[in-house]
Amino acid sequence: MDMATVASTPPLPDSRGASTEPNTPEPFDDNSFAKLLPLNQLARLAVDKTAQTGSDYHQTFIGETMLNDYLIKCFVLSLDNLPLFSHIGWRIGKGRRSGSLQHRGVDLLLDSDQQDDGVAGIHARFNWVKGASGFFLIADNKSGKTVTMDGEEFGGDQRLVQRKNMIMIGECVFTLHYTVRDSVKEAQFQLDLRHFFRRCYGERHPLILPTPGENDSRIGDWIFQQPLSSGGFGIVHMVINSRTGLPAAAKRILKCERNEQSVDREIIMARRISQFTHERICSPQEIIHLDLRRSKSEIKDRIKMYLDDKWTPTAENLTDEYIIISPLLNATFCSLYGSDVSLSGRKIFFSQLLEAIAFLHDQGIWHRDIKPANILVRSYDPPDAMLTDFGCASDKQVIRFDGTGTPRYLAPEQQYGELHGKEVDYWSCGIIGLELIRGRIIESRIKLRDDGNLDLDHKDMANLTSPDLLSKCSRAMLQVETGMRMTAAQGLKLLQSP
Predict the structure, then answer these.
(1) If DSSP codes are grouped into helix, strand and coil, which group holds residue 142?
(2) Of 428, 483, 435, 495, which Cα lies nearest the Cα of 463?
(3) Region annotation Disordered: residue ranges (predicted)?
(4) Which ranges of the chain have pLDDT less than 50?
(5) Which of 342, 338, 354 is nearest to 495 (CA)?
(6) Angle CA 429–432–437, to nearest 5
(7) Which of 69, 203, 209, 249 has the fewest CB neighbours in a 10 Å radius?
């Protein structure tokens, strides 16, 4: 290495260790989704040498960016410039000088003459993983070399690369900086990434998560990304497991004096349902309990983030925080309604919903909030659905109505101060069946007219009087008298009859 090259490299306190966390590089003006920036002297020398003497192929992955007021060479990762074997990702290492491996077996060449830098010929890979979500560092080289990311050393395994990261390939230290985009460009990138999954992995419906953002946080093995929905006492986040890349939904609940009983009831029910392994039940994967032993100012900020404007508890009122983590799927029955799934396919989906309800009722549990958004679709063909969100579930034989549930799917007996039981689940299923037939969500709650009949329009009445089995089931469940409603088990038996 000549002295000019060494002099052009920004000085660091320790040529073997990492620098302090770098300033954010200049915004990317190309189509890259990330840049791998060298942080210590060994890494920078290796990247610089590749830029000067590497092959034309290896130089296609080299770019420049500003870091700590220096213009440095770095590796550029882009869907417009895929590696040689896109299904296995961007391979990084010294490369193998002997043998017949094309491009020395690597895409990101660390062209170093150092013998003690600990870098193998093919050391690790960067890529997405089939069946998972997010961008990974994968250490699976044949020489048994490990990698270190954020202080964790691992080999023969993979880890999700978070927004803020520090990666050691041997003694070479890097950080991966993701491209920051506006919402329009992020949406386009997700379309491009979906195409990448289809072409490289054959996945028709991959789950594409947002690019890691500045506000992402981590609790245990879970990385919390964007919020999906919010309610009176908490918020649901999209999360991803840092080890497996499996996505999930995390419901964060703040507990205080006002909601103490309802939170305790929900956590007890979540722990009970987490023991179930039924294929139609989306059981919680993990329940995390956090003591709110933080500063008052931090807790107040969390209140503003997670709770609605209807109540403003003080930091002293809050006692605990719970996080219920459940599987996250691509679609719900909401998307099924407008799809091209046939009536026979919709009947199968409906029978799977009844299967879930029948199982729950056999366990002495009533869901009490059956709606399209709580029925997840794992696959359209073959039909595959499961029931989720048991925050309103109860095991009491009768319970006084307190506003729990979604208005459009409430049974006639669900009136304030009135008692109701498991039969409300059958009514909700009847509404779901009607929606599957009509192909859209009902506009408002179905009520009783003065003559005692339901206020259905003519088309919906025609649907319910149709001779097909789905219509029969729905009609039998939409009975005003609770004792006259068809049960989930009875409906399942009817749908499965020859």
Answers:
(1) coil
(2) 435
(3) 1-30
(4) 1-21
(5) 354
(6) 130
(7) 69
Q: Where are the domains of the chain?
A: 3-178, 227-327, 331-495
Main-chain phi, psi angles of 76, to 5 degrees: -110, 125
What CATH number does the domain located at 3-178 have? 2.60.200.20
Report the distance separating Cα 278 and Cα 363, nearest Å. Answer: 12
For position 474, what pLDDT does the model report?
A: 92
211: three-class secondary structure by DSSP: coil
Q: 242 near 162, Cβ under 8 Å?
A: yes
Token pair 């691509």 in the structure block, residue: 330
| Domain 3-178 matches domain 227-327 at the CATH topology level | no
The tokens for 412 are 């006639």
Q: Which two tokens stand for residue 476?
A: 């039998």
Strands 217-219 and 157-160, by their bridges, are unpaired
Token pair, residue 455, equals 């206020």
Q: What confidence tens digit (pLDDT) does each residue in 53-110 have?
A: 999 999 999 999 988 888 999 999 999 999 999 999 999 999 988 778 899 999 999 9
Q: Is the peptide bond before 382 cis (omega within 30 degrees of 0)?
A: yes
Read off the tokens for 54: 């590497």
Beta bridge pairs of residue 240: 223, 247
Instruction: Please give the Cα distance from 354 to 348 (Å, whole number).
Output: 10
The rounded distance, in Å, linking the Cα atoms of 463 and 334 is 19
How many other C-beta atoms lie within 10 A of the C-beta of residue 405?
Answer: 20
Residue 268 CB-density burial (10 A; 0-12 exposed, 13-18 middle, 19+ buried): exposed
The whole model's pTM is what? 0.68
Q: Please name every residue paired with 135 in a beta bridge, in sequence order, or none if there are none.
A: 128
Query: How distant, in Å, are the alpha carbons of 305, 306, 321, 369 from that of 300?
Result: 9, 10, 13, 30
Contact assessment for residue 96 and residue 121, using Cβ atoms and an 8 Å cutoff: yes
- Residues 154-194 have pLDDT tens digits of 999 999 998 889 999 999 999 999 998 888 888 899 889 98
Range list of β-strands (E), 234-347: 234-241, 247-256, 286-291, 318-327, 331-332
Contacts of 422 (CB under 8 A, 6+ apart): 361, 366
The three-state secondary structure class of 90 is strand
| Nearest CA among 87, 130, 81, 135 for reference residue 108 | 81
What angle do the packed helices 423-438 and 469-477 form, to 10 degrees? 140
* DSSP strand pairing (234-241 vs 152-154): unpaired
Q: What are the beta bridge partners of residue 169?
A: 147, 172
Tokens for 312? 């403003």
Beta-ladder partners of 379: 384
Closest CA to 351 of 470, 465, 464: 470
- Give the torsion through C-alpha atoms of 267, 269, 270, 275, to 10 deg: 140
Spatial contact of 433 and 466, defined as CB atoms under 8 Å apart: no
Rounded CA gap, 232 and 259, in Å?
A: 10
